[in-house]
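Q: I'm writing a short explainer about Hydantoinase B/oxoprolinase family protein for a general audience and would like to include a description of its predicted shape. Could you first generate the structure from this sequence?
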Amino acid sequence: MSDVITTEVIRHALLAGTEEMARNLCRTAYNTVVYEIHDYGIGLHDATGDVVADAPGIAVFTRGNDYGIKRSLEFVGRDRMRPGDIFILNYPYWASAHTLDPLVFAPVHHDGELIGFASCRVHVLDLKQKNPGYVLDSTDMYQEGIVFPVTRLYREGVQDDDAFELIRFNSRMPERTIGDIQAQVSACITGVRRMTGLADTYGTDVLTGAMAAINDHGERLARLALAELPTGTWQADDIIDSDGVDLDRPIRVDATVTITGDEMVVDWTGSETEVRGPLNLPRGQTEALCSLVFKAMTTPDTPVVAGNFRPLRVVTEPGSVMHAVPPMPTFTLWTGLLSGEVVLKALAQGMPDRVPACSGGDVSSMMGLGVNPRRGDAWLEATNEAVGFGGHAGGDGEDGIMHLSEPGCRNNPVEVLETKSPMIINSYGYVPDTGGAGKHRGGVGVSRVYRFTTPSTGICLVYKTKSAPWPVAGGRPGVPARIVLNPGTEREVVQGGSYNLLEAGDVLANVTGGGGGYGDPFERDPQRVLADVINGFVSVEAAEGDYGVVIDTTSWQVDAAATAARRGARGRT
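A: Of course. Here's the predicted structure. Afterward I'll give you a sentence or two in plain language.
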């Protein structure tokens, strides 16, 4: 067993170990999606697969790693996992993600006993999926790339060359794909060393006792916070534009959330079934997105541990969009990124003082690829864009920050994209009037405009363009995201998720959504509206039309008399 002081020392050592794993990964990865955007999930886990420390990245990845390790233990067996083994898993229904998000993990042994795991998941560039870059219209898993069902990359410390040659011959970009997987291996080895070092220092019993205490404490914190939340049952739903195959069929996701004194239950019964395209979610990712919301509502100020989620129960229907079963396609995982806010939409009905309005609602990713004329080799670069966050009881939503599904991530800088690809960024900035009006304004979205200097493919991953970001407490909706090809020309096309074959000179604008507003817009302080106009977040026309605030554009001051009259016309002074 471990005393409380030793437990706390071990807890911080485990957290430091995951941060070292992340730094190691970022220094050795080949892919800017990893080392610039931080599209990864890194964790140290106990012997059952429960996470005890993680490094911030893609929030849903770490809980997905728990799920994948547990499925791997069932498939391989504890006794067949040897010291020095390193596994890769990307079978979606076990791995909790699509095939290009492989989980690499290593068992940790001490004195012959399995005491834990080190895990690292990243987005790799190519594993023989049917389309280069990303798949938007697969209809079964067999179109989504080569599958590894808990496969050894290293056997007792010795590299399995057959596994890596299989990857090499099944990837359009083998050097970068293998480089990223080896970076994952390196991160896991770092985690194994740090955990075994702790076992050497404190002994196996003390370390395993400390990990159990860490998760038990995480559970106590979650239950104390859960007891402070209102009890009740609330339902909400929203739509995703389409599944990529049946383009005229919006995909409905339905969440019923129940809070009792003992647990939060998120029930996805009623969500769409028989979804032909690849928006179906592996069960592990559904659990992970619910865990993200539960964490935000209960213990947002402490690091993630598996104990935090013991009071959470997730209900799904096998075969539905929230619980894919073989061979349902799962490649376009945007359902997992958008559905967290459906849970929040339900909770907002019972606790509007605690839950913000909807954010811009989408990760709004753009991926460009083709042949680089500078070197003649294949290129692929991607970035996720910032969105506006929803207004809330405490104030305005943030302008232009990363979507809530990826709080540890960044976007790809202009300089990196222009250096590594034949793309020029024509403009990049906030988009006025995208945030929903309210007493507390929704944050505005951003626009990044790409010009392609050579024939390329532009893959747009944007799936919330047909439903507006919802408001709270009388606010107004935000403006949803959109993709605009060749804006302002005769060839202009406005769209969402799409696979575009582009010519040299084509322009693509990725315009992200603004957050919903909170509260009556006519109750917003006119001076704050004026500041929004001066700062470019709200237009003069919207100030008057949405907020009832008349701006004198000669003096750039609020016209108090005209504002009073304008607001009074609605029965308010």
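A: For your explainer, you could say: The two ends are 66 Å apart (CA to CA).
Q: Perfect, that's easy to follow.
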